[in-house]
User: What shape does this take?
Amino acid sequence: MGKSILDYETLELSERERALVIIDQTKLPGKTEILHLKTQKEIWTAIHELQVRGAPAIGDAAAIGAYLAALEINTEDGTEFQKRFFEATAYLDSSRPTAVNLSWALRRMEGVAHEALARGTSVREVVELLRCEALRIKAEDIHICERIGAYGLELVKPGDGLLTHCNAGQLATAKYGTATAPMYLGHERGYRFKVFADETRPLLQGARLTAYELCSAGIDVTLICDNMASSVMKNGWVQAVFVGCDRVAGNGDAANKIGTSGVAILAKYYSIPFYVCAPTSTIDFDMPTGADIPIEERAAEEITEMWYKERMAPKGVKTYNPAFDVTDHTLVTGFVTEYGVARPPYETSLKEIRKKMRESA
Assistant: This one.
């Protein structure tokens, strides 16, 4: 019996090889290819080209990448080490602009280095502290997803139909996923959910990744085109929507994969609860509203040529290819975090979540 995709680590640190080891998600589901990334350029490219993707996984990868960068800095001078280390983290931070976990994880790594060096810690010891912090970030990701799954499961009942968009699954995190965590937990407890996965144009994360991993887990999943969501909702087949997010503004506006806002609008129309599964690391209180969130735009070829044997659009046609859209907070029923479910008004409830986070630190 062959290995399931769920038997692989989405990403891990190879101490022996001094490498970030990832599944190349651009090759799934047809081929499971494991990449061993040893240089900063390779790690930057893997994040930018979506070989590793999903907000939590990007943060995990960036943290490990920062540690590997620290290993390559050949100096015992603390000031010089910090300068070069911060140059490396700035480089990794430039790989993608929207997912706040990227910069969040890198700021954590920078903070560890800065504080230790300020105490007079040797460079060798600082590098070891950075290794521990990178592994801690990944371990926290797993725990957070477990907690999100538990809180999310309280919002649904056995036999419910659930719809999700893009991939906020195990392949987007260290384990369990965010939006899929309630599905995995419910599956273990015999809830028999019926899951609908949007294909998620243009990169097909729902078709290639979400449908693939849920099938591998034995979950009842039906793949639909993005423009079929209204039909399955109208048929009464969906009782709740769970999606992930890449950044949440202070007022509850949420950036997620392009097409999410349309799903939220449909859910509102059909009176279906729409939940955003949001690790607190994705909540950016420096962004007052969704209008402040930078939205990554990607190459035209993802629309006109990718996945097609022949180009499917006329040469020279203009394209618009934002990777994300922003769902207005008025469309969100609740944010499922590792500290509980935040409900409107979000200016208040998200701050309460932040308070719980600080109290537990």
Notes: The CA atoms of residues 69 and 87 lie 10 Å apart.
